[in-house]
Amino acid sequence: MSEISVIVPVYNVENYLKQCIDSIINQTFKDIEIICVNDGSTDSSRAILEEYKQKDQRIKIIDKENGGLSSARNVGLKEASGKFISFIDSDDWVDITMLEKLYKNITDLNSDISICAVHQYDETTKETKDNDKYFNLGYFDETFDNRAFSYLDTKPFIMDVCVMAWNKLYRKSLIDECNARFPDGLIWEDGPFFFSIFFKTQRVSIIRDFLYYYRINRTGSIIQKGGIQFLDIIDVVNLMLKSLKQTPIFEDVKNEFFRRKADDIIYRYELIGLKLKNKFSKKFKKDSLLLDENIFDFALINEKYPITYKSICAIKHKTSILSFYWRKFVIRFMYKVMQVLYTEENIYYFKFWSLKFRIKKRANLYDVWYENDRIYVVLFMKIKFNFKFEYSKLEKK
Hints:
It is a single chain. The chain is of the alpha/beta class. The protein folds into 3 domains: 4-224, Spore Coat Polysaccharide Biosynthesis Protein SpsA, Chain A, CATH 3.90.550; 229-317, no CATH class; 327-396, no CATH class. The chain is built from 14 helices and 14 strands. The protein has helices at 17-25, 45-55, 69-79, 98-108, 133-136, 172-178, 190-198, 232-245, 250-271, 274-287, 298-304, 306-317, 321-342, 391-396, and strands at 4-10, 32-39, 59-64, 84-87, 93-94, 113-122, 127-129, 168-171, 204-216, 347-352, 355-360, 366-371, 374-379, 383-388. The strands form 3 sheets. Strands 1, 2, 3, 4, 5, 6, 7, 8 and 9 form a 9-stranded mixed β-sheet that branches. Strands 12-13-14 form a 3-stranded antiparallel β-sheet, with no helix packed on it. Strands 10-11 form a two-stranded antiparallel sheet. A hairpin with a 2-residue loop joins strand 12 and strand 13 (374-379). Helix 11 (298-304) packs across helix 12. The N and C termini lie far apart (52 Å). The model has no long low-confidence stretch (mean pLDDT 90).
């Protein structure tokens, strides 16, 4: 029996698989089994796995019919024999010290889940991004270092805790105790799995090292397609809500949960085609627990988050769609304006599609600023005008 079981779901990733497997077999922590679940790949992924298995006997290949990421991970969990579990997606890769550092963290602090920081690697631009607080653990202040904590300690930012399955090491006994599994057939499966165990342990720890490379904007990724599976977001949010409702902090955080998850639903709704929007609205109206008035106080939510609430109502009733998109356009425009004004002290920086512009601020020629919900413009120190721009209201919502 190995100390750590590494579960790698594989489906048509021939262009990325070797980099992933190389980063695993070269780990500085050697006592691992590598369970590669071939989820019905139709490209050369299966052959690549066989090639690596001949080189490294720690690799175990499981073949199954295509059933999706959740199904593949669940099959891997059934086969895992290690005391600890790691999930690594086959289009990503990891630092060769990841398992060693997570193992040291989880054993030294006797925690059940150990979490590391994540590099975001943009497949389109070939750039690595580390400034997202969700992935770089920026929401955890220094009081979380070198100790085990519970979800109760994360109450002020609980909706900002990274739920992704793969930047963590899990104690398998916790997973078994919670009977935790990924929801079969659904995408965005990480949240329900993580919540189901995060709320059941008093011992979670973090390590701030960037040890996981998450590939974003990959061609062929299901989250880039905007197809019928985008309706899964409704079921995923329901599962997360059910877990959160069982905690003593639910009443305190439920409005923030509504805002964040409603925004997730709105975002997915925007991405799907017109033909799917009707199905989305019907499913949302029929199945979404976000619409349950016995759970949420909608008068209070409408007062606190009016833009989100009105957008959700537009999806529910499939009415005022043009108004819905106009609101979203106005919001994005206002955010963009503020970004231009405040990006750098002496530079106006903005982009239009793929074109990027940098213009030096020249007070003797022109000046633009925001103050008391108005935009002020001065041209050639003579032409002056201003107009209403209620950004502060948007910021509060």
